Amino acid sequence: MQAKGNERRSQRAAWAKLANTGQQGKGVEEFFDAPEANTWLYDPCTLAPGEFMLACKMRTNTCQVKASLAAMCPGMPTKCRRCHLEPETLGHVVGGCSFTKKLRIARHNKIVDALAERVAQHADWEVQKEQVVATNDPVYGPLLRPDLIFINRPNGHALVVDVTVPFEGDWRGESCLDLAAQRKRDKYECLRTALLERSDVTSVTVHPFVIGCRGAIHASARETFGALGLKKSCTKKYVSRLALHASMRILGIFLDGVEVRAQEVDLAAMMELPLRGDHAPGS
Fold it and tell me: Which DSSP symbol is given to 200?
């Protein structure tokens, strides 16, 4: 057992060293203690062979995007082939490129819907999606619309939940997932006063819900799962897999160059990938 632990620590140190020298391995530390996000590694049969290989490339940040290819071919142009504005990194493709914006919104909405549907199965919770709340906040404006407001009917406790799906990595030495959680918390903290004026609300907490593009489950999401009573690991696995599958589709569509127009394309259908085994919604 001790030998396995030492080997694991050695592998972690090697990946951390690699991540510090370039694109490969960037963000892998977010998965070191995330069993729900790693189940497909232990049980590859939960993915088709092609999906498994792509998921491995995404985890190690070795996909066929220009920034990764340039590591092997010095001097190769790295400007994004679609937006022509930023370096074409995996994080840019699945987390920031204007070409994939509609697909990223669809990914976000799938995660919001999955969380809302799971909580709605419990009679104690009232679920409100994209409820407009007046705040008169000098920074964020007079109206805010969080993704979800959950109200516990027996005790009147309200949870303000807003989902975000950043790429696992770091910015100026800080975790991108930590930064995303703090931005959401700062933005929606002002809703406390407005919601407490409602007759059915006695207390309010703000919960950022941060899931990485590659399926990492941030501490903020774990706190939200706990606050909602969603303690079973199958729910965490399902949401993690949703994010990973959607990002796999986004990358594939980006590389294929398929033009995405909301009025012509069923975005939900384009994002669809089958979830296998114990990751189905009813689990």
Answer: T
In angstroms, what CA-CA distances link 1 with 4, 8, 26, 200?
Answer: 5, 11, 28, 52
Q: What is the pTM of this model?
A: 0.89
Q: What is the number of domains present in the chain?
A: 1
Q: Which residue has the tokens 């309010």?
A: 204
- List 159's β-bridge partners, or say none: 150, 205
Q: Which residues constitute the domain of residue 144?
A: 101-246
Give a yes or no: residue 218 inside a domain: yes
Q: Is 228 a residue whose pLDDT tops 50?
A: yes
Asked, for residue 208, whether it belongs to a domain, the answer is yes
pLDDT higher than threshold 60 for residue 278: no
Alpha carbons 124 and 158: distance in angstroms, whole number: 12
How high does pLDDT run on average in the chain? 88
| C-alpha span between 208 and 201 (Å, rounded) | 19
Domain at 139, CATH number: 3.40.91
Is residue 106 assigned to a domain? Answer: yes
With pLDDT > 90 as the criterion, what percentage of the chain qualifies?
Answer: 70
Nearest to 188 by CA among 227, 221, 223, 140: 140
Q: How far apart are CA 283 and CA 234, in angstroms?
A: 6
Asked if residue 50 is part of any domain, the answer here is no
Q: If you ran DSSP here, which 8-state letter would residue 79 be given?
A: B
Say if CB 157 and CB 205 are below 8 A apart.
Answer: yes
Reported residue count of the chain is 283
Residue/partner pairs of 225-231 with CB below 8 Å, 24 or more apart = 227/159, 228/119, 228/125, 228/150, 228/159, 229/122, 230/118, 230/119
Contact 76, 88 (CB under 8 A): no
How far apart, in whole angstroms, are the C-alpha atoms of residue 148 and residue 35? 26
CA gap 214, 54 in Å, rounded: 11
